[in-house]
Amino acid sequence: MRAVFAVLLACAWFVCPAAAEQTLVSSDATIELQSADAAPADWHSRTPPVDGWTPVKLIDLWDARWPHHDGVVWYRLRWNQASTDKPAGLLVDYVNSAYALYVNGSLIYSDTHLTEPLSRSWIRPQYFLLDRPLLHNGQNELMVRVSGVAAYQPGLGAVTIGDPALVQALQRRGEFRRYDVQWFDQSVSVVFGGLFLILWLLRRKDSYYGWYALSTLFSSLYSINFIVSSPWPFDNTDAWEAINAALWATAAVTFAIFLLRYAGHQWRRFERCMLMLCVALLSFALLCPHWAGRYRNVDVIIGSLTYYAAIVGFMGYTLRHPRTDYYALAGSLLIPIVISVHDLLLLFGVIKSDNYLLVDTSPLTIIGMGFALAYRFAVAMRRAENYNVELQREVDAATHTLTETLKREHGLALNNVRIGERLNLVRDLHDGFGGSLLAAISTLEDPRRQPEPAQVVATLKELRDDLRLIIDTTTHERDSDLADQIAPLRHRWSQRFEAAAIDSRWTVEGVDDLSLGAMRVLELLRFLQEALTNVLKHSRASLVHVCIRRDGENLSVDVRDDGQGFDPGNLTTRGAGMPSLRVRASRLGATLQVTASPGNGARLSFEAPLSLIV
């Protein structure tokens, strides 16, 4: 907080340099003309009136004396010039709204527009250098033709004559305070407003950034009143004053909504009603500028009461909810709310002065509000950074826990696979080799049958082939392709067919990268073994062709021979071989196709979808 107050003090020193420098005006070197004569005239008056002059004291605002006079008032001021050896400086501090200046009957200055749309000369004090022959020894006369509208406090301010260097220093100080500081305020306000508009666009949920930017926009539009020297784009003073007052009320309403949102409240019905009031005031100012301008004080009262209620309410909220940014914002609003009372009394004509004080404190207000908003943003960023650190810590812990869990799951999965493979091996031994072995034992133990040696050898070979199939399908890696698993079967049967004088041809296509799994490969190999056994035992063929091919998403298996063939209608008389082949094809998701006729060989084939196999 000490740093904040140091910044605010430095800004106060900057915008109020008069407090830091020695007074330049000496009463002996300059003369301040405090009295004059005034006379009303019409808009097109080119010469001072002959009669109707009234003594007045400067600063003079003629709306109290002539409340309905819109037009021209001439002011006559006289002073004695001791010597004309040196030039004299002339300072006209305040004129509302436009004027022409005559010294000893000679025109030395005239505003661009002395009729509507009136120039706005009250913004900047004017300095003139008077010398001979314009300046006379003895009595000199200054005539000021002022054009204005009674509703907007027209009149003439202080006039100072004296040493040119001192008078010009007074003019520069007045211009700095009433004009340059206004530009500084506008620049700072636009910078802060633009910055927090960007923050709002990036963080829409923090709506108080957007309301602050909107309040800054309307405040800047209102503050143009203190900078521009003409009422453009309007063609009369009434329209300018009407829009200016409506902008003041709108800036107050948006600022009040900003304070509400900053305190964490959203009074949507109240906000909607106040915004509708602002739209009504702006519309009335555009549609009826004459009436809206003449009754601008209504808008000023609405805006001022809104400002006061919002600021006092926020200060009370700060006392109940103490926070650093709340204190900074409330502190930046405390001085302006007190000084604004003086400016309102001046605006309503209760006191007479050309010295509005709020301009001196507005930089403090802008910087204070900017600090509060920036402080809250910095706090939010720190919270986000701390949250990110905590979140990263939690993510790391969760990642570690998940890694350990996955390791355990992977170990369990490997154990399950091993157990499953062992169960599959047991089933294969039981269903295949065990069944064949049991049948062979039953045959050999039957006392009624005396098997031939050749029959015993054939039975043992079948048992051997069945055992080899199991070994071949369980000793390969699980992800080996189908071609590698078919190779041992092909090799054994090629030798067997060669010993039986049967030519065997094998076609294996498109299965190099195909993996079916141990159980399904075993079914396929048993199918081929059963089919080739039938060819070897029963076909009396000279040629057998085995084709295993992958066609897109299907796996086709085809076994053909040129043997004696058979009648498919009499398959029930040929033992259990053909039903076994059908069952194995069905387990692979296919239907066995049998093509055979006596004397024309036989063909066994099926086509299985890979989606059902893999």
TrEMBL record:
Enzyme's top EC category: transferase
Pfam family, one: 7TMR-DISM_7TM
Documented EC number(s): 2.7.13.3
Reaction equations catalysed: ATP + protein L-histidine = ADP + protein N-phospho-L-histidine
Highest taxon of source: Bacteria
Domain Histidine kinase: 523-612
Residues spanning the membrane: 183-202, 209-230, 242-262, 274-292, 298-319, 326-351, 357-378
Keywords: Kinase, Membrane, Signal, Transferase, Transmembrane, Transmembrane helix, Two-component regulatory system
Signal peptide annotation: 1-20
Xref: Gene3D superfamilies: Galactose-binding domain-like, Histidine kinase-like ATPase, C-terminal domain
Protein name: histidine kinase
